[in-house]
Amino acid sequence: MANTLKQEDIETLRELIKGVDVAMVTTMNKDGLVSRPMKTQEVEFDGDLWFFTKKQTSKYEEIQHDANVNVAYVGKSYVSVRGKAEIVEDLDKKKEFWNKAHEKIMQTTFEDPNVILIKIKAEAAEFWETGNFIKNIAFMYKQMTGKESEDVHINETVELDK
């Protein structure tokens, strides 16, 4: 499936997630949805999100079984990105993203065959502004009641891949 991401959508999402280091990444296991915080790699968003992990983790197994994921960011806005994950073991790509902090946290080097990258190709994103009080109230109302607030436009959705 070819990515037909519009440049203005990429730029909007890039600005919304810029500076938000940690995202909640949701995968699917046999019991249902599982979310965990993961550090986004410091790469300018171009439609793909990148994360380091190890093969010996549940998220590796979950992605192998079901590539559908969601990534949620909270920063200047609330951002929810739906996409497909793929495991990347390319040594050059791992070296490109690697830094001393990874070495300390993961207790290994990028050359370790157990270290992998998760590449998430964004398919759609939904976002809510945090700076608008009325929109925040409408968002909270919707979350608590499950009812739409028809008179307040509380969020925007962009389709990234058709």
TrEMBL record:
Q: Which InterPro entries match?
A: Split_barrel_FMN-bd, Stress-Dev_Protein, YdaG_split_barrel_FMN-bd
Q: In this protein, which residues make up the domain named General stress protein FMN-binding split barrel?
A: 8-149
Q: Name one Pfam family in it.
A: Pyrid_ox_like
SUPFAM superfamilies in the cross-refs: FMN-binding split barrel
Gene3D superfamilies associated with the record: Electron Transport, Fmn-binding Protein, Chain A (2.30.110.10)
Q: What protein is this chain from?
A: Pyridoxamine 5'-phosphate oxidase family protein
- Name the source organism: Amphibacillus indicireducens
